[in-house]
Design a protein that fits this description.
The protein is α+β, with helices and mostly antiparallel strands and 227 residues long. It has four helices and 13 strands. The protein has two domains: 134 residues, Distorted Sandwich (Glucose Permease (Domain IIA)); 56 residues, no CATH class. It binds zinc ion. Zinc ion binds next to loops.
């Protein structure tokens, strides 16, 4: 496998020895004599030591984390998603079973260890598939790793509106994921604030001595995020 050293300005592994084995973009793969072309929506990274801790690329809120996958499904294997605000989210796939150190709702700092590289899901060797979404579209992570682009640094702000039934948006999705993590609400994180989200939120508020009005305002956000 051809690999290329990338000296990262902002590391995504603890020892910061990134080798890119597969860049972002259109790629052609031949498996068992069958050639297919598809979009690779992130970069594949290996560490010089073979495996390494993965760290949060920027500070943010963990919106999803799974560490119990041992086989090939789901294709992303064990994974972590982090919302950094400013429209940026990062994605870490194929992590080692039971190595994931964070859970949905956790606040993480840039450089904080979130788990260990592995080869779960659709993967043929130990590596990290690292993806970045900007305003819900995949973008090439490499300029962010090299420091050519950044996510806003200290100017980053997470916009948390007061949410109520009938509203839609990414922050509604974050709320649904947090309620699933906190009280096993079983909501579909579709970003639509409907009656089920309202009921789950009211239940969470009542259990946490908050005004159970079904509206997610500053006090409820603070409780959900632990800040
Ligand atoms: Zn990949």
């Amino acid at each position: 496998m051809a690999k290329r050293l990338l000296v990262a300005a902002v590391p995504v592994t603890a020892t910061n020895t990134h080798y890119i084995t597969s860049p972002y973009g259109i790629r052609t793969i031949t498996v068992g004599g069958v050639t297919s072309t598809g979009m690779h929506n992130g970069v594949d990274i290996v560490a010089s030591c073979g495996a390494d801790y993965i760290v949060a690329f920027e500070s943010g809120i963990v919106t999803y984390a799974r560490g119990d996958v041992t086989g090939n499904t789901p294709s992303e294997g064990n994974s972590v998603y982090i919302d950094h605000g400013n429209g940026y989210k990062t994605y870490y796939f194929h992590m080692k079973p039971r190595s994931v150190l964070v859970k949905a709702g956790d606040l993480v700092r840039r450089g904080q260890k979130i788990g260990y590289m592995g080869t779960t899901g659709n993967s043929t060797g130990v590596h990290l598939h690292f993806g970045i979404k900007l305003n819900n579209a995949w973008v090439d992570p490499e300029p962010y790793l090299t420091g050519l682009k950044n996510m806003g640094g200290e100017r980053m702000t997470l916009t948390l509106r007061t949410l109520s039934q009938g509203m839609r948006g990414e922050d509604v999705k974050t709320l649904q994921q947090l309620l699933n993590a906190k009280i096993n609400a079983g909501l579909v994180p579709d970003g639509k604030f409907g009656p089920l989200t309202h009921a789950a939120l009211t239940r969470y508020q009542a259990a946490n001595r908050l005004l159970a009005d079904g509206k997610c305002g500053p006090a409820t956000w603070s409780a959900l995020l632990g800040v």
